[in-house]
Design goal:
It is a single chain. With 372 residues, this protein is an alpha+beta fold. The protein has 13 helices and 10 strands. Strands 1-2-3-4 form a 4-stranded mixed β-sheet. A hairpin with a 2-residue loop joins strand 3 and strand 4. It starts with a strand and ends with a helix. Bound molecules: zinc ion (ZN).
Length: 372
Amino acid sequence: MRSQIKLGRIFGIEIGLHYSWFLIALLIVFSLSSQFHASNPAWGDGVILGLSITTGILFFVSLLLHELAHSLVAASNGLPVREITLFALGGVSQIEKNPTSAKIEFWMAFVGPLTSAVIGATCLTIGAALGGASSNPGMAMLSWLGYINLGLAAFNLIPGYPLDGGRVLRAIVWWKTGDADRSTKTAARVGQAVAFVFIALGILRYFGGAGIGGLWIAFIGWFLLQASRESYVQVDLVHALQGVRVADVMTHDCPTVEGWLNVQNFVEHELLRSGQRCFIVMEQGKVSGLVTPQEVMRLDRAKMPFTTVSDIMRPLEDLRSLTPDAPLTAAMEAMSRYDLNQLPVLSDGHLEGVLSRANVISYLQTRAELRA
Ligand SMILES: [Zn+2]
């Protein structure tokens, strides 16, 4: 989940929105305004719209505070946070490393729901102290924000990994057994069970007449199921790749191509003829970047004879390069984080080879066949 719209930085952490967030923002504003229209039609259209939008924005702020709490605990424990992305189902903090101890994991996870609970309780307390009449627009807003944040805290504490509650569960199992891998698997299994309950409940409610609300619950369940399955598989994957270095699986004899070649010639004489998926671009005897079918496809066909390979390549500066003795797991993390299919492998500025996702997959296949 990557941000598509950048909003700025808080404490050095990039804050962004995924397009799907607008869907939920619209849904919140619509449902709030229809709720206010039904309960207090006397407020008038202008007040109701303004109130719905303000409430929506404050909800957004409270989600952000929840994520910031996770991120700040991570950062203060030496785990760098790249960005916070808000999307249709809430927020995600992209924390670059896994927690190194059960205690850090516990606090990192628990502080999110705790923040939401504190925000919720504060809103309700202020509302009650000021009289609590929900016929007043300000009070209605406080009460809605209060309950939604308490709801958010409760939902996030459901022990289904990767929800916060699942992470808390993982931290507890980790602490009790001292086995980080086993704790992930246990938490992921519970996460799958929770996901199935959500899906079943959603379908039952849908056929019970709850309409779109039922489907929404089923959708959240499906999302959880995918996420917990992935984390389960990842543990096995990390195991299979333990001790393997980039140099063990990379392609050594990567074809090179001159940067001044035009794309038309490159496609006809190199790409199609060789069947290779990745070429190293050379400029004046030096490696300057990589070019793959991906870059070629982005170029307009008519422009191919007038564009050089250098124009469309991914320059070396933009690519994260690897060293031959880097662990393969770190390389795979880098590939998925930066959404790359290939990475050049350099040692002392000299090109040693290229690592691609395909290399990793064929390594895993060979391993699986040998074991079978
Ligand atoms: Zn959270």
